[in-house]
Write a structure and sequence with these properties.
It is a single chain. The protein folds into two domains: 1-226, no CATH class; 230-489, Jelly Rolls (Sandwich). The protein is 29% helix and 23% strand. It is built from 13 helices and 18 strands. It has helices at 26-37, 63-73, 79-89, 118-137, 193-196, 202-220, 228-242, 274-277, 279-288, 298-306, 312-321, 327-337, 341-344, and strands at 96-99, 103-107, 154-159, 168-175, 181-188, 292-293, 296-297, 358-363, 367-375, 379-388, 395-401, 408-416, 421-425, 433-438, 446-455, 460-461, 473-474, 479-488. The strands form five sheets. Strands 1-2-3-5-4 form a five-stranded mixed β-sheet. It has a five-stranded mixed β-sheet with strand order 8-10-15-12-13. A four-stranded antiparallel β-sheet has the order 9-18-11-14, with no helix packed on it. Strand 4 and strand 5 (181-188) form a beta hairpin. The longest helix has 20 residues, at 118-137. The termini are far apart. The model is unreliable at 1-20 and 42-53 (pLDDT under 50).
Length: 489
């Protein structure tokens, strides 16, 4: 995958087996090289100090993604560019190592520069070993280990990453199948509060970064060319599953669909921090389908088990089908859940307040109001209807016209003044029309009514140079929905 999301495939496909990686154009390969140069200190990043606040900065390439894109593009480079790619993808140089039965931590003992204390190196070894065991016990593939440096073990390197502007990264290294690759990872040499701040302790930063980055190594054992939105969203999701009390990933919720529902769930543009904030989608799935394997919800494992033979949204769709449901229904439920996070997520009381697209106050008189939403694939929008000084005996009749109801859905959520909520999933007829009548639409009984449209279109014409699933164009993509609301008695 190119860092800019602009790699066209040699042929376009809709659905099906996309496991064979498309040929990367020379132009896109050079773009991937240029992006990767920005994450290495010997390429003018040293001293940038862009890492605080937050682990990622909009507009700047994530190190794991940039190096993964370069790894996927390297065969399309030649001459000095290929040599530069090899240098950027090369492992750090260290003096010694400390190993468990599954990982080796490489470091240079001492203080200053890239050096790390032996005590800290041992701590990293123990933390990463714990993370490894959690993933393996949950059914995930073991990261593919190299056969030369420390045969059979995954290598972790310690450097002063703060000077590069990062918390950590992993990079694929040697292909072991059509889609999978070995990996090595790099973590900071101390996560000192003087550099990374005091929002988390150094140990907390180590733990969540290890959980996130090592999950990338696991992902590479499935598909090192998978869509970056799913790579980053699931890696950010798993942080909180492994270390539930740290909650570092909440900082990204402002960029995901909890707050920015008009940006497609699978938007993987390098400037979009939503690929981290959209961990909330996988939190929704893992709470909705709560069965666990080991210590982790099984539904995300089911998605990754399908990833090597298809692309991200199809893998999600297939995992849901195996559970007797559809992406259309679950995406609509996800949209409704985000209108009341405190009521629908286990930790939702600490999440951001819900967002709506429009608000209409309805006084005590007979009237009809209307509107429309045009939605891109994997986005949603809500219209809020509020009774204004309405007494007894009034009703609210809602009518919706859902475009392409095979891929789109509408939900009506009724928020009552007693704190309860009713959620109604409308079933449009063959023309896309559905209605819902709200009895007792009075200010004393009802606080608000939300009419939500969700576009769950997830089939793609792949290889079209976009930043979406399989670099494709959703088919269909946009859809315009209409709503009407009538007060009467």
């Amino acid at each position: 995958m190119p860092a800019t999301g602009s790699t066209p495939a040699t042929s376009a496909r809709t659905g099906g087996d996309t496991s064979a990686q498309p040929t990367v154009t020379k132009k896109a390969a050079r773009e991937a090289l240029d992006a990767a140069k920005k994450v290495k200190r010997n390429q003018s990043v040293r001293g940038a100090r862009q890492v605080v606040p937050g682990r990622h900065v909009a507009g700047r390439p994530d190190a794991t993604i940039a190096l993964t894109d370069l790894w996927n593009a390297k065969d399309s480079l030649d001459g000095s560019n290929k040599a530069a790619a090899r240098e950027l993808l090369a492992r750090p140089r260290t003096a010694t190592q400390t190993c468990s039965d599954v990982v080796c931590v490489h470091y240079s003992p001492g203080k200053g520069g890239d050096k790390a204390s032996t005590t800290y190196a041992n701590q990293v070894r123990d933390v990463v070993t714990k993370v490894h065991n959690i993933y393996v016990n949950a059914g995930y593939r073991r990261p593919a280990a190299d056969k030369s440096v420390t045969p059979g073990k995954v290598d972790i390197y310690l450097e002063n990453l703060y000077d590069e502007g990062y918390y950590g990264y992993c990079a694929p290294e040697t292909k072991v199948s059509k889609t999978a690759a070995t990996a090595y990872c790099v973590l900071d040499n101390d996560y000192a509060t003087s550099e990374y701040g005091t929002a988390n302790t150094p140990t907390e930063n180590l733990r969540v970064t290890a959980a996130h980055e090592y999950f990338h190594a696991v992902q590479f054992a499935y598909d090192a060319g998978e869509d970056r939105w799913m790579m980053e969203s699931t890696a950010t999701w798993v942080e909180d599953e492994v270390y539930d009390s740290i909650n570092d990933n909440r900082q990204y919720l402002a960029y995901g669909q909890l707050e920015d529902q008009r940006k497609p769930l699978d938007n993987s543009n390098v400037s979009n921090l939503g690929i981290y904030g959209n961990w909330i989608f996988f939190r929704y799935l893992s709470e909705r389908f709560a069965k666990k394997r080991g210590d982790l919800p099984e539904v995300v494992l089911s998605v990754w088990n399908r990833a090597p033979s298809t692309y991200s949204t199809t893998a999600v769709r297939q995992a849901l089908a195996a559970r007797g449901t559809t992406l259309k229904l679950q995406y609509a439920r996800f949209a409704a859940a985000n209108l009341a996070p405190a009521k629908t997520y286990s930790e939702g009381g600490a999440y951001y307040a819900p967002v709506y697209d429009g608000r209409t106050a309805l006084p005590a008189k007979r009237q009809t109001v209307d509107g429309q939403f045009t939605l891109k694939h994997l986005t949603y929008a809500s219209q809020r209807l509020v009774p204004k000084k309405i007494g007894k005996g009034w009703k609210l009749r809602i009518k919706v016209d859902v475009a392409r109801p095979n891929a789109n859905a509408a939900v009506v959520s009724v928020f009552r003044t007693d704190g309860t909520r009713g959620v109604f999933y409308l079933e449009p007829n063959s023309k896309g029309i559905a209605t819902k009548t709200i009895e007792g639409f009075s200010s004393k009984r009802i606080r608000k009514v939300e009419v939500t449209f969700a576009n769950a279109s997830s089939n793609f014409e792949c290889g079209q140079g976009t930043a979406f699933s399989c670099h494709g164009i959703a088919s269909p993509d946009k859809a315009t929905h209409h709503w009407w609301a009538k007060t009467y008695r």
